[in-house]
């Protein structure tokens, strides 16, 4: 199921963050915060995006709750028992994209027996084994005449999706598929941006690291933005979306926040 929110409105998750934060402030702290806001208001400018709303065509921001595959559910249930692991957030995040990504981890979960590993290898190229992988693949496939920007805070999910696109569509890295991560030098990044934003280029999808693609990067060639991970810092999501939804964008921008249920 999906939840949609238009630009400028506070999302349910934002409201939840506000409520959660407010429970940690007593009355005196709340009064001091309000006093601080009053003092800094004359010289601290908070940009609310009014120019973008007046200038650009529009932003449709959707939260999609996706049902995991049987193999994903099995892995997530096993991970739920590993409550004290430092790697837990990472494992849950990549499993929600595709369970075979657990095999790429430097430290694998203890429940991954040789038999379990063999099962994951068997489904490594199976799109239906990973619900976020399947959604991203179908979106890219259906986005005729539009370019897609896919964000993840981890590299392995992007690499895996790129490999599947090469296998299924016979696409080539550097032509239809572009990557942007921390390994790219500044000159190489600028060249990738130029290619991706060129309407006449063959580029169809840019697979981007959330950390590498931050402030100052213009990716207005994309009109579809996929956020593979659940990022608890809302500013990270806003920065990612702002790569495409910014001055120079000629199309409506559609954003998909992917969440695996269960």
Automatic annotation (TrEMBL):
Query: Major place of localization?
Result: nucleus
Q: Which GO terms describe its molecular function?
A: ATP binding; helicase activity; hydrolase activity
Q: Where is the Helicase C-terminal domain?
A: 115-262
Q: What is the protein name stated in its UniProt record?
A: Helicase C-terminal domain-containing protein
What is this organism's lineage? Eukaryota, Viridiplantae, Streptophyta, Embryophyta, Tracheophyta
Report the subcellular localization.
Nucleus
Q: What GO terms describe the biological role, i.e. biological process, of this protein?
A: gene silencing by siRNA-directed DNA methylation
Keywords, comma-separated and alphabetical: ATP-binding, Helicase, Hydrolase, Nucleotide-binding, Nucleus
Q: Which GO terms describe its cellular component?
A: nucleus
Q: Record's superkingdom? A: Eukaryota
